[in-house]
Design goal:
This protein has about 200 residues and is an alpha+beta fold. The protein has two domains: about 40 residues; about 150 residues, Superoxide dismutase, copper/zinc binding domain (Immunoglobulin-like, Sandwich). The chain has two helices and nine strands, in the order ααβββββββββ. β2 and β3 form a beta hairpin. The protein starts with a helix and ends with a strand.
Length: about 200
Amino acid sequence: MKRTYAILIFGLVLLLLAACNPNNEEQQGNVDKNNEQDQQNEDSPTVGNPDNATAEEEVLVSLKDKDDHVVATATLKQVKSGVHIKLNGENLPPGTHGFHIHETGSCQPPDFKSAGGHFNPGQTKHGKKHPEGPHAGDLPNIEVGEDGTVNTETTAELVTLKKGKDNSLYKEGGTALVIHAGADDYISQPSGDAGDRIACGVIAE
């Protein structure tokens, strides 16, 4: 009999404890949901984000030839290692062409000399082959196919889209992207002997 009473009392204590905390089930449910969401976040990759950096808005730059025709579009995005540049072009001369960031946001045809020299806030020499180079605005050559198209990507590691920085592409007076007629040899001063400027686009917010 005593054992029966003890079991009954124990059962009543359990019921009272459960009654005193009615939110246990709901709280456990919330914990399970949070854990599930955290796991989904860990498993989900960063989409459209080179170097898995925190991406800002993409900046679109239209490059025009001397006849004011758009021949290329560049998409710029801030990433951890610099500024990622994706270039898509058509109706360009086949072959290897120099491709640079220039120091002034102006593209006056037909020669685009208004864009100034290469963007060079560090006052270095031109070219990755030069012991005192490269310029911040030096980029790899681009290869245009026989059909006149180019689709390429690169990251400019010495520049930023963050305002207020010495190497910001949004500096006072702006900057520009320029495609040259010939290849950059990565060492000749001041611009790699890349020839005339055949396309230009202002980098603007």
